[in-house]
Design brief:
About 5% of the residues have low confidence. By secondary structure, this protein is an alpha/beta fold. The structure holds uracil.
């Protein structure tokens, strides 16, 4: 084999291993298998969050389906007025199947509590439903496969306000490459729903001096939220 071809193959294998560890993902164009697995189009028609969760929890639409422990759908009030959106499950979330339950989640609870918001009254989800190996950034192909699930959740919950936690969530929702610094302290719009961007709690854990700014963001979020008209459905 030609050396340049060998090195291209070696490069591809290294890239794949960096992305997915030791697991191989091979898409099988078997129509029977495809019918059994929840196709996005069929699943996206479900009418309650719980039904939708059941319909998509065995998703194998990207390689992360093979490496995850648990599918992390989202948690909170199905009629929440605010929806917080993070990046992707980490190790604790992958083990428990619930978003933001690790150290970053504890900090998020604290930030919420400081503005008198309880986890149970908001809704929390991520851009990706499955953990990327070693917590690497989500890849564009993974986001492309997964984000329709989040979009459907947003449609079902109809929050008054969306909050993107961190750069990855914000950039993917707003389809931009703006820096987090430029995105904070402003009200954006995602499919006509106001969206505010703040730090990812894991970033605040790493850089403690950002805690006060994260709290300022939370107050900005709450102030804006309280000015929005009430939802027509019951709930906050
Ligand atoms: N980080 C995230 O972005 N989401 C989680 O659920 C946990 C950590």
């Amino acid at each position: 084999m030609e050396n340049s071809l060998k090195s291209k193959i070696a490069g591809f294998l290294q890239w794949y291993q960096d992305l997915y560890g030791g697991e191989w993902y091979i898409e099988t164009p078997n129509p029977a298998a495809a019918e059994k697995r929840p196709g996005q189009t069929a699943a996206l028609g479900n009418s309650t969050l719980q039904q939708f969760h059941r319909a998509i929890e065995n998703c194998q639409n990207c390689p992360l389906g093979r490496t995850r422990t648990k599918f992390v759908f989202g948690t909170g009030h199905e009629n929440a007025g605010i929806m917080f959106i993070g990046e992707a499950p980490g190790q604790d979330e992958d083990l428990q199947g619930i978003p933001f339950v690790g150290r970053a989640g504890q900090l998020l609870n604290k930030l919420l509590a400081n503005v008198q918001l309880k986890r149970e009254e908001v809704y929390i989800a991520n851009i990706l439903k499955c953990r990327p190996p070693n917590n690497r950034d989500p890849q564009p192909e993974e986001v492309e496969q997964c984000i329709p699930y989040l979009q459907r959740q947003i449609e079902m919950i109809q929050p008054k306000l969306l909050v993107a936690l961190g750069r990855v969530a914000a950039q993917n929702l707003l389809n931009t490459t703006e820096s987090l610094t430029n995105m904070r302290k402003r009200v954006w719009s995602y499919r006509e729903i106001p969206l505010i961007v703040t730090y990812h709690p894991a970033f605040v854990l790493r850089y403690n001096d950002k805690f006060d700014s994260a709290m300022e963001d939370m107050r900005f979020i709450l102030e804006h939220y309280q000015k929005l008209p009430e939802k027509e459905k019951p709930g906050r």
